[in-house]
Amino acid sequence: MALDGALVTLDDAGPLVPGQEKEAVVEPLLSEPWQHVAQGMEIPMHAGARVIGSARILEIVRIL
Fold this sequence. Notes:
Blueprint: E1 6-10, E2 24-28, E3 42-47, E4 50-56
Antiparallel strand pairs: 1-2, 3-4
């Protein structure tokens, strides 16, 4: 299942260069496609059809 539509906010300002790691907050726009995501999973990050990186899920905060 595709994980479409999320806002990604980096933990600080400045460019992210290839190979660099940064902590970020990923906020899904719709919760349903993201229900299967679990702590520790690695998910691809896309810009259109192109994979531009990956993210490891460190924590999940569910807002009711």
